[in-house]
Amino acid sequence: MESLFPVVVFLAIATLGAALARRLGLLAPIVLVVLGLALSFVPGFPQVELDPELVLVGILPPLLYVAALETSVPAFKNNIRPILLLAVGLVLFTAFVVGFVLHLLLPQLPFAICLALGAVVAPPDAVAATAVARRVGLPRRVVTILEGESLINDATALVLLRVATLATIGSAVGTAEVAVEVLRATGGGILIGALGALVFGFLHRRISDPLLDNALSLIIPFAVVFTAEHVHASGVVAVVVTGLVLGHKLPQLLSAASRLQVGAFWRLVRFLLEGLVFLLVGLQLREVLRDLDEPVGSLAMTTFAVLAAVFLTRFVWLFPATYLARLVPRVRRRDVRPSPKFPIIIGWAGMRGVVTLAAALALPLTLAHDEPYPRALFIWLAFAVIVFTLVGQGATLPLVARRLKLPQDDPVQDALSAAGVQQQASRAAQERLDELADSAPEAVVARLRRASEDRTNMAWERLGGAERETPSQAYGRLRQEMIDAERDVFRAARDAGRIPEEVLVQAYRDLDLEESLLREVEK
């Protein structure tokens, strides 16, 4: 009971913080981190010491899985070059630069432990990138690149961290050992992820109950991670591969009812976990400061140097990676030269999060031969990077995006494409209806034909201006009033004892489904 109470308190605060952020028009991750920082010094407020295993195996997998499920595989493949340049190249570049800077400031420490901290602070956070980028309203391609980067870069950083840690504690690490470690982590993760997609895709096809589909969906990320970790492969890579494959095939794997329920379930899980994660990051401040005993001047200089290295390396890497690649004729033909605004906004969106903190807490307690090192300083540096990038860059990202005036995705073109495909879909539906028309009354066939035509008309209506109410909007407005009137009648009948509760529940369910459809149409 006592151990459950803080969890409930944290979830309640995370929910209230997210609601406050929406009310104020701010980004929820920023508000929750600042709230956590403030609450960490409130006397008597429950404190929690983050377990890195809990984060990396308990919290990160479901968040990565749902992010991968919602990632467009065609868009991911079309942007695989910039994604890999960021998720692999930039992570390695940042880790080595931060490692060299820290080693210059603390030459008494082995380079391996400095490189380990570089690996800790190198990867932008998947949760932060997804939560902030979409809310800011960045162009679709920028969001795809940021999300793709954040899905893969944790694997790169964690593999490098594992190698650097082995060297730190005195294990022999040569070229062969590094190659084996990378192959086992990455190759094993891809293999297990593909196997997970095959097995769980097969199970999804055989399940028709939405509740069972939902339960299986919750099990998948943990089953994949546990299997990968058991063979020392990358659980991050495995979960991402499984999520990408299943997400791409989800329309064929799940029934309509299962898709609706699974989608609603994961929206709730992501909302609660994201809120909890950002709040817990802020709450760690008091614990981080507790063991810190560095001189203020030295601490400030080291912190500034690491922050500058993390911030600047992203831009130093991005501009050559963006423009030098286009010296290759094949790349230049496939991808036009972008405006400098795009690498600037992608560079500014490099927020770190809970993975960085969990990785810092997983740093070894001592070096080889039990030699001590300033571990508390390393954890502080990781925490400072999180706060600086998440609060500083994250809070100013909307302002930077507005100042850059990035070209937005054309909603008219989106609506035109959707209307064209909808017309093809309606034509296919009517052809199928014509084949089956003899098996149903003429009035039923006519009603279905009108419904198909209405869907096509609705798609084309979205191309009109917003200054007048379209027929579909008028229909939605009037039908909403009718639904409210129907609910009042059913509720009064239940209260008067004319119908049992079960009839009311079923009637409300039908009306709720119709209202949900109306609201989706209005978007």
Automatic annotation (TrEMBL):
Describe the task this protein carries out: Na(+)/H(+) antiporter that extrudes sodium in exchange for external protons.
Membrane-topology descriptor: Multi-pass membrane protein
Q: What is this protein called?
A: Na+/H+ antiporter
State where the protein is found: Cell membrane
Task: Tell me the superkingdom of the source.
Answer: Bacteria
Instruction: Say which family it is in.
Output: Belongs to the monovalent cation:proton antiporter 1 (CPA1) transporter (TC 2.A.36) family.
Occurrences of domain Cation/H+ exchanger transmembrane (ranges): 12-401
Leader peptide range in chain numbering: none
